[in-house]
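I hope you will forgive my troubling you with a question about protein structure. You will find the record immediately after this paragraph.
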Amino acid sequence: MRVCGLMSGTSLDGLDIAIVDFTVVAKQVTYELKHFVTMSYTDELTAQLFQLMDPLVPLNHVSSMNMYLGELYAKCIKDALVDSEIDYESIDLISSHGQTIWHEPTVVSQRLYARPNTMQIGDIAVLAEQAGIPVIGDFRTRDMGAGGQGAPLVPFADQILFQSQTNGRVLVNIGGIANMSVLPPAHFAQEVIAYDTGPGNMIIDAFVNKYSNGLLSYDANGDLAKDGIVHNKWLEKLMANDYFSLPAPKSTGRELFGSVYADKLWLQGDEYGCSSLDKIATITMLTAKSLATEIEKYCQTHDLKEVFVSGGGVHNKTLLAYLTELLPNQIDVRTSDEIGISGDAKEAFVFALLGYLGFQKMPNNLPSATGANRQTILGKIAW
């Protein structure tokens, strides 16, 4: 079956498209990534999506964007294949994560109707109609219905595709938010453990945008952070954030580590006498430190030897250097390319897999990662 996986993450800057061929042989899923491309959004669309993160935005703006993204995704798929060897008619299924605009896995409100909730827009019925191909999407709500947090979903794929027989591994994805899957060697009794560790690129990008007065959207190669100095006292305060002490499973997003939090921290850096580059260096170290702290918890119990990084963070050399420096010497930090999947393509690839399994009525969540009370089948289908 040929599946087109779509992923638009918390950076809100584009749509990742992965075309993957799947086959089940002797109950094992085999795959071949045939094509991958990122279709960038216009600056105007990115700005509009950022505005939707505000809970006070008019509901009709959210509803309208839900329909628009369904149309846009269909167009992006067709445009992405123009210069490829992939025949559009050969695609059997589109698997779309959608664009998260709200994710509230735990609710403290005592309101009668308050429930853990999540919302991904990019209507799958509109996408199916415009593309002329069946679509599966809206994966997270079923996991929440089963008592889970609806995230992270990637660890399910990490376990079935990348668990080693001999070495404990950590699969890290650094997008807007950083998350990890801790995989013991296959013969170990320990469960796979997975959760969001905290901010990934989200605050770094916000700081770079402030530093450059809007001219830059990210720290290319980590060059800005490299020229700054980490302020350790401020870092210590940042690591005292309540999220880092919460027990797993846990998930987070822009609601906690978004623009409001970034604005607060930018001003807080002034209180510590940090230059703009020092701020960028320190907040880059926050991502590395919050990741390394969590990874170290499992070094012995899961016999960890390898860390494989994917997501936009793989391009931040300073971030990877910080992470390597913080981890014990026996742990080798590399990119996911070395185990056969492009760091940029991984999330779109994973949602192609989740969609394939859901379409085949096969379970596709990992309760030890999401906290769900049972394994279930994620995804709704628009024929």
About this structure: The chain has 15 helices and twelve strands. Residues 99 and 120 are 5 Å apart (CA to CA). The longest helix spans residues 59-80. The radius of gyration is 20 Å.
